[in-house]
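Researcher: Quick test of sequence recovery. Tokens follow.
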């Protein structure tokens, strides 16, 4: 009598770590979040720096989606962050906006304004998932298992 091999079954269905289902889910999350991710004109004319950072820093199949820019956290939180000494968000130079080096900024009560708002803005992952993204990701996972 043949024994059931759970690990072989998991692999055959694509459910192993880094498997086809996880890859499909990761890509689906990136796709669902893109229309909600803020544009940032400081990253170039198209404003897609945050979006590109997720594409570049996410390892599809890892189960971890990463937005990695120096400003990703405060853009996600949606609050203006300021230098604790100068109480300024930054200062203008010939090369654009800058901040003092090696200074951790603190949040204020002031909200950021987003290009493409109200869809693009703070807490884009949560809002994308609440706006139908969970169903989309779940449907993607189901389809990937059936392949």
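Model:
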């Amino acid at each position: 009598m043949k024994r059931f091999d759970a690990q072989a079954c998991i692999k055959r269905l694509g459910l192993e770590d880094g498997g086809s289902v996880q890859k499909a889910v990761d890509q689906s999350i990136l796709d669902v979040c893109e229309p909600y991710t803020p544009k940032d004109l400081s990253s170039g004319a198209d404003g897609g720096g945050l979006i590109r950072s997720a594409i570049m820093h996410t390892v599809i199949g890892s189960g971890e989606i990463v937005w990695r820019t120096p400003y990703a956290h405060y853009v996600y939180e949606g609050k203006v962050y300021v230098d604790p000494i100068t109480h300024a968000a930054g200062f203008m130079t010939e090369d654009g906006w800058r901040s003092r080096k090696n200074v951790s900024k603190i949040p204020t009560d002031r909200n950021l304004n987003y290009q493409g708002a109200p869809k693009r803005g703070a807490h884009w992952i949560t809002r994308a998932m609440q706006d139908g993204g969970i169903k989309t990701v779940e449907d993607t996972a189901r389809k990937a298992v059936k392949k």
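Strands lie at 79-82, 91-93, 96-98, 106-111.
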